[in-house]
Amino acid sequence: MTTANNQTMTQWSTEELSAQLSHWQGQYGDLNGGNLKLDLSRGKPGVEQVSLSNGLDGILQGNYIAEDGTDTRNYGGTRGIAEARALGAEIMGVPEANIMAAGNSSLSVMHLTLRTAMDLGLWGDGRLWSNAETVKLLAPVPGYDRHFTLSNHFGIELVPIPVTDSGPDMDAARAAVADSAVKGIWCVPKYSNPTGCTYSDDVVSQLAALPRDAAADDFVVLWDNAYAVHDLYEQGDTLTSIFEAAAAAGTVDHVVQFASTSKITHAGAGVAFLAASAKVLDALDKHLGVFSIGPDKVNQLRHVKFLNGRLSAHMADHAAIIRPKFELVEEIFSRELNGLGIATWTKPKGGYFVSLDVLPGLASKVIAMAKAVGLTLTPAGATFPKGDDPDDKNIRIAPTFGSLDEIHAAMDILTLCIKTASAEQVLGAR
Ligand SMILES: Cc1ncc(COP(=O)(O)O)c(C=O)c1O
């Protein structure tokens, strides 16, 4: 593209900027009527990825018996079969004794955890969150919208705190937990949704100590390690064990971890895991036993047989499919936007998202412009509680689902919308 002397857009002369804007407006006008149907909003695996796990089908060949003799076809066992717990231990880096292997969705075990914390108590004593008039959770932002929805579902208020490249801003977190209504913090510690950041060792140890710093004695770190093994490159980020950090800080009863195979095998038919102290697992069992006589142990056994000894190789197969998509996003952002001073974006080494910040006030405009010509993006504000991005600047990009050609076309449109909207804003301010 024709950048004027490598200067940022605000440094361009009004003549240059106006000429360039007319050019972009013309390109944008040409897109109308193109009948496009592109989508960068879906944080789900593509068909090629889910197909990597089709070997699950029929893998048991009629042998439904688990290692300890359990007939997986029958009722029972709220914590799942031992070998599925071992798979959870491998994914989460937590001892098998501390794992519960559940049904297909980690969100449902997060729901179980919040429900138990609210009404039954996580520690088998009188500490229930519902004893408090107001219950609040810290929400590092930008963050995962379903954490917000889940919290709102229980009437829990969210307190946004900023995320840095190394995790939540811990000074802000410590200041916030002085309020005894604050009962916990949501964390996506590796390849965070949406920024892709991995929490530093220092942040992990500060988070492990946070329940001690908190005014509430029923504070919980909600550790959603959804992307624990989802590296794009052979050399992925490493995440310090919060389990060990919590043991050192004396807070093991105040950390609950989640993961699943949703983005390892079949997103709608995987196995979810929860990791916690023995005391917390006992409390969760009581609630769980009321609404289910046990998880789908047949599916757990299928997963164990399928992933046995080849989890890393399987994740490398995923990476081979999606890495080019992330690299294409990076290539087009760099080519079209570098040096213009109108956007920043993350370059994650794993996970499912790229987080884009445009000029303040422009995210909803860019998303609407894209929508008008057939490109769906995650709604503006989705990465903030109540859908309220105070700067209206964050856009979550999900490149895994579409084909390379679709991503290419979508990124061309997205960058054109960003340039056009930014030029209009910059000119309008002169
Ligand atoms: C951070 C995070 N947690 C949880 C989930 C959903 O997990 P599950 O499919 O196990 O319910 C997602 C899906 O996008 C996610 O990004």
How is this structure best described in words?
With 430 residues, the chain is of the alpha/beta class. It folds into two domains: 9-49 and 313-428, Aspartate Aminotransferase, domain 1; 66-308, Aspartate Aminotransferase, domain 2 (3-Layer(aba) Sandwich). It is built from 13 helices and 13 strands. The chain has helices at 14-31, 47-51, 82-92, 106-119, 145-153, 170-176, 201-213, 242-249, 278-291, 297-307, 311-337, 363-372, 404-428, and strands at 38-39, 99-101, 136-141, 157-164, 167-168, 182-187, 220-224, 255-260, 272-275, 343-345, 354-358, 375-376, 394-397. The strands form three sheets. An eight-stranded mixed beta sheet has the order 2-9-8-7-6-3-4-5, sandwiched between helices. Strands 10-11-13 form a three-stranded antiparallel beta sheet, covered by helices on one side. A hairpin with an 8-residue loop joins β10 (343-345) and β11 (354-358). α1 packs antiparallel against α13 (404-428). The model has no long low-confidence stretch (mean pLDDT 96). The site of pyridoxal-5'-phosphate (PLP) has 12 residues, from α4. Pyridoxal-5'-phosphate binds at residues 43, 105-107, 144, 188, 193, 224, 226, 260, 262, 272.
